[in-house]
Amino acid sequence: MAAVTELGYVGLQVKNLEAWETFAGAVLGLEVARDAEPGRRWLRMDYWHHRIALYAGDHDELCYIGLRVAGPDEFQEIQRQLSDAGVACRAGSREEALSRHVLELVRLEDPEGNPVEVFHGPEIQLGRPFYPGRPMHGRFKTGSGGLGHVMLRARDLAAAYRFYRRLGMRGGIEYRLDTGKRTIEPVFMHCNEREHSVAFGLGDPRYRISHLMVEADNFDDVWLTYELVLKHELEVVLPPGRHANDRMFSFYVRNPSGWLLEYGWGGAPAAAQSEYYTEDIYGHLKNIGGPRSSDDKS
Ligand SMILES: [Fe+2]
């Protein structure tokens, strides 16, 4: 069975491109690149042409997530699997593949309607080393773990689980969180050594995406970024803390689109067998039953 191998890229429509440029470059340390298209910015984290594409638009929303497969054979095989399962896919045109800087892609939607692209062959620019938007102690941790993870909206968690299982991901419920009114059971899916690449069941339902996590390989970058967030007077929605499932030491800041960016360090792989937690290790407003925490945590 063919399986996706990483969360390779994401595309975001943003209302305030200028604010995003500052946020991405001066605060997070991503490299901001531009080309002839005035309403588009490429955010780089490593040797890839880009990991995040920003498109200026009239509202803030996730445009797509890009899940990678290893090569052309897996690309054909996964399309067969999806077709056999009755999942509608549309082959991306050559122009679409060129615009994503990949060899080939197909486009589909998850059961919630979140746009998903399965692709292979990203453009890797080995002659153009990553140049952070501001000094960093270390680098972003990408490699075979992909760019990070996303928490997506899914009102039917079982359907979301089935869909991402068809793409070869594994995972399941990793928290049982008592909010005082109900129990929330978010689902986390992985496809490589990153504990999860896609997750569902928490977050602000106004957006398809409730947070995007990027990970640094040096702990000091988390604290440096945290101080820059405070200096730029951005809203820290969850203060630093450590998650139980991926062991990530991280904090959450509201990005210029209104949903959240998680900046982390120290993530651990998925447990070999399923297990669940009722709270985080420390920090992050540890008790998820707190007044605003049920909306914003992962
Ligand atoms: Fe997260």
Protein architecture, described:
The chain is α+β, with helices and mostly antiparallel strands and 298 residues long. It has two domains: 6-122, 2,3-Dihydroxybiphenyl 1,2-Dioxygenase, domain 1 (Roll); 143-296, 2,3-Dihydroxybiphenyl 1,2-Dioxygenase, domain 1. The protein is 20% helix and 32% strand. The chain is built from six helices and 19 strands. It has helices spanning 17-28, 72-84, 94-100, 157-166, 219-231, 293-296; strands spanning 6-14, 31-33, 40-44, 52-56, 61-68, 90-91, 102-109, 115-122, 149-152, 170-173, 177-178, 183-184, 187-190, 198-200, 209-216, 236-242, 249-254, 260-265, 282-283. The strands form three sheets. Strands 10-13-14-9-15-18-17-16-19 form a nine-stranded mixed β-sheet. Strands 2-3-4-1-5-8-7-6 form an eight-stranded mixed β-sheet. The chain has a two-stranded antiparallel sheet with strand order 11-12. Strand 3 and strand 4 (52-56) form a beta hairpin. The chain starts with 5 loop residues before the first strand and ends with a helix. Residues 287-298 have low confidence and may be disordered. Bound molecules: fe (ii) ion. Fe (ii) ion binds at residues 149, 151, 211, 213, 262, 298.
